[in-house]
């Protein structure tokens, strides 16, 4: 079946998949169609009718039909987040007094900026919420 894939940048393209294809397989199809550097499968999130599809489910199970529109976006790289946690662990063991104040200071600043968020100020939303806001804007 043919599926229309739309990106957050507004571009769209078509892919071919079967109803029995898993979401993970569809991500690999998108990766091979658009390039690993552009849309790596391990960082792709596929959204259908406002719902983020899980890799181990099939298109059929998610009620994705012929010529449906899928929205794709990139999540944070998994390797970077694990690399960041190992990077933060290493300095902690080397210079323990210097490391704890930095996370505490950034954590102290985060909640006040997130608390007074209004729908008229989407740029003040946390990254995840901003991404979902943009998706909803694209779908309207």
TrEMBL record:
GO molecular function, one term: ubiquitin binding
Annotated source species: Aegilops tauschii subsp. strangulata (Goatgrass)
SUPFAM superfamilies: Ubiquitin-like
Protein name: Ubiquitin-like domain-containing protein
Low complexity bias: start-end ranges: 79-97, 104-120
Domain of life: Eukaryota
Ranges where the Ubiquitin-like domain occurs: 1-79
Annotated region (Disordered), positions in chain: 79-120
InterPro entries: Ubiquitin-like_dom, Ubiquitin-like_domsf
